[in-house]
From TrEMBL:
A molecular-function term among this protein's GO annotations: metal ion binding
Residues annotated as binding a divalent metal cation: 79, 117, 244, 248
Source organism: Saitoella complicata (strain BCRC 22490 / CBS 7301 / JCM 7358 / NBRC 10748 / NRRL Y-17804)
Example of a GO cellular component annotation carried by this entry: mitochondrion
Protein name: YbgI/family dinuclear metal center protein
Amino acid sequence: MASTPAILPKVLRAVQKLYPIALADKTWDNTGLLLEAPISHKPCANGVSRVLLTIDLTTAVAEEALKEGSGVSVIVAYHPIIFRGLKSLTMKDTQQRSLLRLAAAGISVYAPHTAVDAAVGGVNDWLADGVSGGREHEEKREVLQNGTKVEGHEDGGMGRLVELKEPLELTELVKRVKKLTGLKYVQVARPRSLEKVKTIAICAGSGGSLFRGVQADCFFTGELGHHETLATIENGMSAIICGHTNTERGFLAAVMQPRLEELLKVEEEKIEVVVSEDDRDPVEIM
């Protein structure tokens, strides 16, 4: 039997250099190596091994990795496929079936999740850059919660609060969000009194709990509960809501893929980083 894939520790070093596991919120999140395959996966015919990036490790994404000749040795899945304790591993459960099949094929799984959220240059900074146009257009940028002491990420933490140098029309902000996320439609909640936006609170994924007590002209997030949205409007604030994973998915190709590739270039093995073609938002607007 082959040994644990030699590529795995190299991928882990690269991912954790960008998104140190110490940044993750371990009080609830399950960040880290979730599946360590006991055997090596075969590389492509040209000797290339691949790292597959995805937001969710669905059955479709697992099938993509398991295709003959895919060369996928490691899946980096932003959301942890194992979140709560497992009492069994069976083929009846779709997620467990994927894990068993991946292990048998020599494919390991790592989930960086909230480490990517909190990192400097992580998903929330990507969202902030996209709506502000870059730090040169900002008065200041702060974290909303849990500032870190991790070396290189002293300015990191959960969420971002951006104050623009010049206020924007809400309609212009919506256009920027659509361009950044690639969405044709987003949900917008706005009070009648709002004219322009100068401060924007940002949270990839679900921002409801993180925005509690935060004052900003606009909340930009993937999810906001009904009563949270009502309270936002009642307090004279607006919200742009895109769907949970739509605030995260574009980050993979725009930032994570090229940064990982750059770090893995120094390795002796031929390692490619690819973004899943089968990962998608589970909900679509018809």
